[in-house]
Structure formats: structure tokens, C-alpha cells
Amino acid sequence: MPARGHLEADVAIVGGGFTGLWAAIQLLETDPALRVVVLEADRVGWGASGRNGGFCEASLTHGLANGLFHFPEELGVLEAEGQRNLTEIVAFVAADGIDAELEATGQLIVATAAHEVDGLREWVEVAERFGGGVRFLDRDAVQTEVPSPRWLAGAIASPQHCVMVNPAKLAWGLAASAEKRGARVFEHSRVSGLRRRAGGVDVLVDGGAVVRADQVLVATSAYSGWLRRLGPTFVPIYDYVLMTEPLTAAQMASIGWAGRYGMSDSGNQFHYFRLSADNRILWGGYDAIYHPGSQVLPAHDQRAETFAVLERHFAEAFPQLAGLGFSHRWGGAIDTTTRFTVTFGDVLGGRVHYALGYTGLGVGASRWAAGILRDKVLRPDSELLRLRFVRSAPVPIPPEPLRTPAVELMRHAVMASDAADGRRSLFLRAMDAIGVGFDS
Ligand SMILES: Cc1cc2nc3c(=O)[nH]c(=O)nc-3n(C[C@H](O)[C@H](O)[C@H](O)COP(=O)(O)OP(=O)(O)OC[C@H]3O[C@@H](n4cnc5c(N)ncnc54)[C@H](O)[C@@H]3O)c2cc1C
Description:
Blueprint: E1 6-14, H1 18-30, E2 36-39, E3 55-57, H2 64-70, H3 75-95, E4 107-111, H4 114-129, E5 134-137, H5 139-145, E6 153-157, E7 162-164, H6 167-180, E8 184-186, E9 191-197, E10 200-205, E11 210-218, E12 235-244, H7 249-255, E13 262-265, E14 271-275, E15 281-285, E16 289-290, H8 304-317, E17 326-336, E18 343-347, E19 352-356, H9 365-378, H10 388-391, H11 403-419, H12 426-433
Parallel strand pairs: 1-2, 1-11, 2-8, 4-13, 11-19
Antiparallel strand pairs: 3-7, 4-6, 5-6, 9-10, 10-11, 12-15, 12-16, 12-17, 13-14, 14-15, 18-19
Helix pairs in contact: 1-6, 1-9
């Protein structure tokens, strides 16, 4: 139902994806009397939350290597927080009876180039320093798990690091959970602007509705172009996905995959892939497409060239599935920042708080970030608000006309690094030095 007329709220939340919905739930769990309104431009889960790969990872820092690079002094705390967060997500989904097809499988990362094998060994070693739960598989062992001519080795992370979900079902379930706790969730209610007034903020909704709120949470991710202030913080980068027809019993037998792990390969440009509850394979990633001017448009949700690349790579990874068709193809925008992690900030005199920038790893981290937004509103003394991870901002991204060449330069440097056995060019090392990008 769209928002109409004049509404009053203690907290208005813009965006009905994971960040906005978890924020509504956590606000109301902390203070059940709060008047919380969620405004979603389309339908709940329409953004990245309803169309992602469903890898719900514990990491808040886009992996250990990126965490060590950007937040070495806080990584112990951030890893512990991420694990607590994942445990609480699993418990919440069970307690609230959300049918999100959650499978506590863990994750299998494979190497498809010799230098990536060393990278996997390093990951296992680093993980040991932060609680372990990751083990190395040599070529024979990985072929026993999921046979493919492409895999040279692998590493399995336990379910304490990653569980798999059906993301759209999770988003719809979270909306029901938020409403059950008293939130009012309005769909087809696009916010066009925020207007400061004495003691609060007026949230202006297309069609004329106005929500008079004390505080506002902005949770619009890669679709945050409506709030110009957020422009330098992120770049919308499109990611694309294929979904196969359901596999027959014989096709399932040919790929093994008894552990049903979420999988990915480990180049800078990587694929992620998984089994759905009805035994289709979701196969996505690799290309990362920027549309000049930071365009985010429904027309970009389909991209034939990328789908053709993904189909070719799928055939190389799973030749035993030749002839298997693809029933669905889609894409979505990712809120990429220069340090690949969620970032927070306050605007309009501290009455508007935002969280965005998960850079393709927000299924789990969005709940933690929503907890930070809740703390900003209700628990200003929270220790977590003092983390550098929360307080500091990533290096800003220049506006056009510099943005397009800057993004393309970075993309080509990363591709070249994959082609050169992982060696980092002078350009990438210069970017590392100023805290842009990461060493995976
Ligand atoms: C193809 C793809 C695959 C991915 N795979 C994974 C994965 O496997 N694991 C993982 O951890 N992460 C993955 N991600 C990233 C993950 O989906 C996101 O980090 C996460 O869903 C972000 O949630 P959010 O609520 O912040 O944003 P979103 O889900 O994008 O929600 C923002 C919402 O705001 C609404 N909105 C926008 N503008 C307005 C406005 N003006 N007024 C009102 N509402 C507005 C939008 O309609 C949208 O519903 C993937 C992303 C994509 C695109």
C-alpha cells in the first residue's frame, strides 16, 4: 500500500531492503513503543536484497584480506561481531518462522590458476589467527567434492562463516517480521527529498504524502542517487546472474556437490555459484559493469554480452552439464566503495543517518549495519559507534567526467592482475597506498 497524506513517525526508514527492514526490526525490538515507518519505492526486496546470490557471510569486511588491509587493528572485534551477527540471523529466521530456504552449508572457494592456490593456503593460515574454520583441499580432494576440469584446489569455510538463503523470501519474511512488531511498511512510496524543520525532518514522498519524522534512516544502497550528498561515497556497479533449469537426478550425480556449499572461484574477477532449494544452479559474477553518469536504470538489469560470457564460463566449469538450459537471467546494482565495506554517516544536523557500500557482500553485513543505525538513534553510548570502521569514511570517488575513466582504469588494472598471475601493477600499488581497492 502506498503512503498517503500526512503521517507521523519517530523514525522513518527510506528503502525496504535488508538494511531498512533489519533496522525497523531492531529499533522495535529495542523500543516496542517506537513509531516506525518504512518507505519503499517499489516492492519490498525489489533492490539488491531480492536478487542477490544468497551467500549470507559472517564477514563484515568483505573478507579477511580486505579487513586486514583496511582495519588491521579492529579486525579481531569485527570478525567476532560478524560471527555473532550470523548466529543471530540464523536464530532469528528460525524463531520468526521465516521460510528463507536457509541452508547452513558453509562455502567452498576454488582456485582456477596456480597463483590462486597459494592465495587459498594464505587464507587458511590467516583464518587460523581469527578463529579458524577454514581448511585447504588439494586438487584430488576438491575434485571429489565437485568435479570440474577448472578447479586446481579449494578451501572450505564452515557454516560459522557462511550460510545460504533465498534472498527474496528472506526480504519478504523480514517485512512481515517488521510489521508484526509494529512497523508500518509502505510500498510504491518513492521518497523524493528530505526537508529539515524545527525538531525533525519532513520526508517527501512522490504523490504528495509527507512523513513528519524525528529521525530518518537512509537505506537505499546503490539506488541512493536521489540523495546528492551520497554521490562521492559510492559507485553503482552492475553484477549479472544466470539460473539454470532444475537439474535431473543424473545431472546432480554428475556434479557431486553433496555438501551443497555456496561456491566461488578466486580471481579478482570471480564467479559465484550455488544450488537453489529446487536444485537449479545460480551462476553469477565476473563482469562488473559501470554505466557512465552512475546510471541506475531498469534497462541495465539485462545485458546480453555479459550473459553470453557467463554461459561460456559455465560450460567450461561444468562440461558434464552440456545441454542444460538457463531459465532466468538478471542483474542488479551494487553499491561499491573504495574500501569495499559498508560506510555510515549523518546529515541534516544528525537527524538523518545512512548505511551503504557493502560492495556485493551485504546479505549478512546489512543486519549488523542496521544495528549500528539503531544504535545511532537509540543507543548513542554504544561501544560499536566508536569503531573506526563505523566513524571513518572511505576515499571519495570523483564525479564525472573523471569518474568513468577512473572506474575503467581500475577495472582494467584488476583484469590485468588476474592475467599476470596476480601481480599488482604500479597503478594498483599506488591505489593500495592511498587506501583504494583491496588485496584479495
Ligand atoms: C546480482 C547481485 C548479487 C549479489 N550477491 C550477493 C551475495 O551472494 N551475498 C551478499 O552478501 N551480497 C550480495 N549482493 C549484495 C547484497 O544484495 C546487498 O549488499 C544488500 O542486499 C543491500 O541491501 P540494502 O537493503 O542496503 O539495499 P537494497 O536491497 O538495494 O534496498 C534498497 C531499497 O531502496 C529502495 N529505494 C531506492 N530509492 C528509493 C527512494 N527514493 N525511496 C524509497 N525507496 C527507495 C529500492 O527500491 C530498494 O528496495 C549482491 C548484489 C547483487 C546486485
